[in-house]
Design goal:
heterotrimer; A alpha+beta (517); B mainly alpha (258); C mainly alpha (270); A: 517 residues; alpha+beta; D-Maltodextrin-Binding Protein, domain 2; Dipeptide-binding Protein, domain 1; Dipeptide-binding Protein, domain 3; four-stranded mixed sheet; 15 helices; globular; B: 258 residues; mainly alpha; MetI-like fold; 10 helices; elongated
Chain lengths: 517, 258, 270
């Protein structure tokens, strides 16, 4: 009966789901996708072996019906789904999986997805065992082995939708894949994705009913929508993302010596951290849709968050004491270091991000109370990156990190002192401080084992060190704010990308009221 | 009459803009507040007094726009004048065309990214404005050139030349006084143009740096259509329109012979 | 002969614009970075590869050589940031911009000129519209659901009006026009037979200038209103430091601006 109703509803509904992406997808090659827009299209059009359910965070069968991970974490065996067909009618077999991995691991491809399958000891080997079984062998024990397969699109045309039309800079239209294996899904006939860079316009169009979903809303737009159209603005709870501030500690940075000396002082970093009112940032800038941060791992990441870590308490008196203990003194409202230099530094952040600009202004006022003068500099993203990664010509930087995967391996290329993306002192030949050496050791240790308890122990210690040393002042973890039109049914917003359309094949739209949109 | 009113209004605005204003103070317990006795125009989303920001922003925008306009008019007068007299005409007109076609938004982006980090927002905005001024000479130079060309073949110039008037005297006593009204008209037109340019830059995120207010970043608050139910947000728009409108009224009829 | 001279001038200026733009991008901060570098999944080796690719793309000499070779084969090169051939990109985006410019100019002229004929009335409205920034007009129109060409009309009409009003005022106070009026000739006939013919060259020059004006306004309008046209393409190319694309677009704008000047010079040879 239920099935009958379901089929009936499907036949009746059909319809079109509409939403917008902020940028044109940069590539159509599923193995080279690196930008969010391309990933969104890929998510809707590609089939993968294992899909991480965005709601439960558990791996689910997709093209692989089942899988088995070897005890030592070096091998995973997939049983493939039989009877799956490509749009041209040919059958999906183990050969397609092997071919995909062969191309993915080609060293000339330089795919970010491939890099997750490579370790210092070599890369994964994928081979077929009969027509419907595939084995992937890793050179070393690999942590959270299933989750990395969520990114690898097998062949093309095995997902719920197919690209039907592409207008450069305007829109992409996806149509239902008639040969999709999860019959009778997807429920909608087409998905229309507009390229809309301006978030304000996106909101205007949402209100007019021209688009059905907004995956990411800024806090101010969320508040506005919540007031104007109650019930359409959704707060799916805390994300794993974080916003933070760090100080440039690189020796070769072309910034004044005294400034470098302040930044290398742990007491100074703690004092800054204690003087920032995180609760105000969450309340005023994020309108309550954020939680103060204690470290890189959000408390909502139950599996990996170190129990008992609390955000640094706002305590300007303690901050002043710390500074005094480190030789700083306050003279006529100006903080001076041991040699009498007035403490003044700049915070760079990316231009056009209003939320971050507001945070910077609030931090500026908080630190004024310690006698520190802050200059806020907003830069367009390439200029910011050049300063961060090439010239190192900056003092402090305010940025955020989007975390998709709760696993610590996600932070590997940020926390290793040798990494180019190690924020406060990139590309170190050997770790310059003992605590960075320890973080390196612990991060490598946790990655080299599949034993969760051992990994957790190592990663807990990493979180502790980061808290003791505070090279990065973690500020807050924002909530996942989205908008869902009442014309769409079945949306279950989550805190993970893609927040609103992760199960697009199950979504349906009610026909537009006459004359609307 | 209208003209006198407009001048009076402009002077009043300028004087009001010099009132003391604590534009950066954050009242964090009352962000986005409506108008009240304490905050006549309400507060912005960080709880800063909108009226203070409007007062200080007016000072920033008006003074800097005037400086930029003076700069571009000076360059325009020099280059347009020379070209109008027939010296290096092709080169100067060519350069003007070149300037009009270059991506100056990109140039601004670049200069901003190259500025030293620890400069106060006031210095950085001054540099931005001067750059705008230095880049903005092309359009007024064309007008000056056309005017000087016309003047240099006018009857009184020919007569002066025929009576053996020396070149410098010709320029100083005959050409300059006659070209002056056109130049002044250009100045009056250019000032509002720069006020507007700064607002445009502000809306693209290239304007004055926080926490310094300017009309540009005050206007940015209108993004996202927050006006409904908050009419006081329109205060900066009205002031901007009134000030620029007054400038227009002061100029009234300018010589636009292309 | 005159035409040849103008063509030569346009060619020189377009090449100069292209070269200046290339130099500008080359020495702009951020040209050496590829945004993909911050992808945390990338290995150090892949990051090195990205960096060396980017360095090749910003080498002006090499880019210029490649560009000449491409041009000889009839294409305009490849845009890295859009991952598409530039000629195709321009062909894709030009219609939106051209439509916007055409409607915007036509509307601007219709309103501007029509309202310039009666001597009073519109000047207050025009003054007000002249006083609002391009961006703000764009934005307010947008929130009310107006299209970008309407924004362009609103921006252009008052400017055309002010230029045209002065021209008309001058022409209609000429002695022979006053004489005709005194003899009882109707205003409409005076306009058609005396005023418009007298100011035609200036109007052509104004038309040329208004085209340049409209192009200048189109970039911020498209960037703010999110029109998928050449203006937004240029803005994105600037943000991504896409050297070949930005140079091509600058040269396109230069062709339009210099051609406008040429037309205006030819209409007013004195």
């Amino acid at each position: 009966m239920r099935l009958l109703l379901f089929t009936f509803a499907t036949a009746l509904l059909g319809g079109e789901l509409r939403f917008a992406l902020h940028q044109e997808p940069k590539t159509t090659d599923p193995l080279l996708m690196a930008d969010e827009s391309a990933e969104a299209i890929g998510y809707l059009t590609d089939g993968v072996l294992i899909r991480i359910n965005r709601l439960t965070q558990r791996p689910e069968a997709d093209l692989a019906m089942s899988w088995k991970v070897a005890k030592d974490g070096t091998k995973i065996t997939f049983q493939l789904r039989q009877g799956v067909k490509f749009p041209d009618g040919s059958a999906f077999t183990a050969e397609d999986v092997v071919k995909t991995f062969h191309r993915l691991l080609d060293p000339t491809l330089h795919s970010p997805i491939a890099d997750t399958f490579k370790t210092e000891k070599g890369s994964v080997k994928v081979s077929a065992q009969g027509p419907f079984a595939v084995v992937a062998e890793f050179p070393a024990p690999t942590a959270s082995i299933e989750s990395i397969f969520d990114q690898v699109a097998i062949g093309s045309g095995l997902g719920p939708f197919l690209v039907a039309e592409r207008k450069s800079g305007v829109s992409i239209v996806l149509k239902k894949n008639p040969s999709y294996w999860k019959k009778p899904l997807p429920l909608v006939d087409t998905i229309r994705i507009d390229i809309e860079q301006n978030r304000d316009i996106e909101l205007v169009r949402f209100r007019r009913g021209e688009i059905h979903l907004i995956d990411k809303l800024t806090p101010d737009l969320y508040e506005r929508l919540a007031q104007d159209a109650p019930g359409t603005a959704v707060d799916a709870g805390p994300t794993l993302d974080s916003e933070f501030l760090w100080f440039n500690q690189a020796k070769r940075a072309p910034i004044p010596e005294p400034t470098k000396e302040w930044f290398r002082s742990t007491a100074f970093r703690h004092a800054i951290s204690q003087a920032i009112q995180r609760a105000d940032l969450c309340r005023v800038v994020y309108r309550g849709h954020a939680t103060p941060a204690a470290g890189p791992v959000a408390p909502s990441n139950k599996l990996w968050f170190k129990e008992g870590m609390a955000p640094e308490a706002f305590d300007p008196a303690a901050a002043a004491r710390l500074l005094a203990g480190d030789g700083f003194r306050l003279e006529k409202g100006v903080l001076r270091d041991r040699s009498g230099n007035a403490v003044e530094f700049s915070i760079i952040t990316n231009a056009g991000n209003k939320t971050r600009e507001r945070m910077a202004v609030m931090i500026q006022e908080d630190l004024t109370k310690l006698g520190i003068k802050i200059n806020i500099v907003t830069l367009d993203f390439p200029s910011l990156l050049e300063r961060m990664t090439r010239t190192l010509n900056y003092e402090a930087c305010l940025l955020g990190l989007t975390n998709v995967n709760p696993d610590p391996s996600e932070l590997m290329n940020v926390l290793l002192s040798s990494a180019s993306n190690h924020p406060w002192n990139p590309s170190q030949k050997t770790p310059e401080t003992a605590w960075e050496a320890e973080i390196d050791r612990l991060m490598l240790a946790q990655a080299a084992t599949a034993d969760h308890r051992a990994r957790k122990k190592s990663f807990d210690r990493v979180q502790e060190i980061l808290r003791e040393q505070e090279p990065v002042v973690y500020l807050l973890h924002p909530n996942a704010l989205s908008a869902v039109s009442k014309q769409v049914t079945g949306v279950k917003p989550t805190a993970f990308f893609p927040r609103t359309f992760w199960d697009a094949e199950h979504l349906s739209t009610t026909p537009k009221p006459a004359g609307g949109g | 009459m209208i003209r006198a009113l407009a001048i009076g209004f402009l002077i009043a605005v300028l004087l009001a803009a010099l009132l003391p204003a604590r534009y950066e103070k954050q009242f964090r317990d009352s962000p986005n507040a409506g108008p009240s006795r304490q905050f006549p125009l309400g507060t912005d989303d960080l709880g800063r007094d909108r009226l203070s920001r409007l007062i200080y922003g007016t000072r920033v925008s008006l003074l800097l726009a005037t400086a930029a306009a003076l700069l571009s008019c000076a360059v325009a007068a020099a280059l347009g004048g020379i070209a109008g007299l027939g010296i290096a005409d092709t080169v100067i007109v060519g350069a003007a065309d070149l300037f009009l076609s270059l991506p100056w938004l990109f140039l601004l982006l670049m200069v901003r990214a190259c500025l030293p980090l620890n400069v106060s927002p006031m210095v950085s905005v001054t540099i931005t404005f001067l750059l705008l001024g230095a880049l903005g000479w092309a359009a007024p130079a064309r007008v000056v050139r056309a005017a000087v060309r016309k003047l240099s073949v006018s009857d009184f110039m020919l007569q002066a030349r025929a009576t053996g008037c020396p070149q410098w005297r010709l320029l100083w006593r005959h050409l300059m006084p006659n070209a002056m009204p056109i130049l002044l008209a250009q100045l009056w037109i250019t000032i509002p143009a720069y006020v507007l340019a700064e607002s445009t830059l502000g809306m693209l995120g290239l304007g004055v740096m926080e926490p310094l207010p300017s009309w540009g970043n005050l206007l940015r608050e209108l993004e996202g259509g927050g006006i409904a139910g908050h009419p006081w947000l329109l205060a900066p728009v009205l002031l901007l329109a009134a000030v620029v409108g007054s400038f227009q009224a002061v100029v009234e009829r300018e010589d636009y012979s292309v | 002969m005159l035409v040849v001279k103008h063509f030569a001038r346009i060619a020189v200026l377009v090449v100069a614009a292209g070269l200046s733009c290339a130099l500008l991008v080359k020495y702009a901060p951020g040209t050496s970075v590829d945004e993909r570098e911050v992808d945390r999944r990338l290995s150090e080796e892949s990051i090195r590869e990205l960096r060396s690719n980017k360095a090749q793309n910003t080498d002006i000499g090499a880019t210029l050589r490649r560009y000449m070779v491409d041009l000889a084969h009839g294409n305009l090169g490849f845009s890295q940031s859009n991952n598409a051939p530039i000629a195709a990109l321009i062909a894709d985006r030009a219609p939106a911009t051209l439509r916007e410019l055409a409607i915007g100019l036509a509307g601007g002229w219709l309103f501007g000129l029509a309202l310039a004929i009666p001597k009073r009335g519109f000047s207050v409205v025009a003054g007000l519209l002249l006083s609002l920034p391009t961006a703000l007009i764009a934005y307010l129109c947008l929130l009310e659901g107006a299209k970008s060409y309407l924004v362009l009309v609103i921006i252009l009409a008052p400017r055309i009006f002010r230029f045209a009003r002065n021209l008309l005022a001058q022409a209609s106070s000429a002695p022979h026009v006053e004489m005709a009026r005194a003899r009882g000739v109707t205003e409409a006939r005076i306009l058609m037979a005396h005023v418009f013919p007298a100011i035609t060259p200036q109007l052509i020059a104004l038309a040329a200038t208004s085209v340049a004006m409209a192009i200048g306004a189109a970039i911020p309008i498209e960037a703010i209103c999110d029109v998928p046209g050449l203006g937004r393409l240029a803005w994105n190319a600037a943000m991504a430091r896409d050297l070949p694309l930005l140079v091509n677009l600058t040269m396109l704008v230069a062709i339009a601006t210099t051609a406008a000047t040429a037309v205006s010079e030819m209409a007013n040879p004195q």
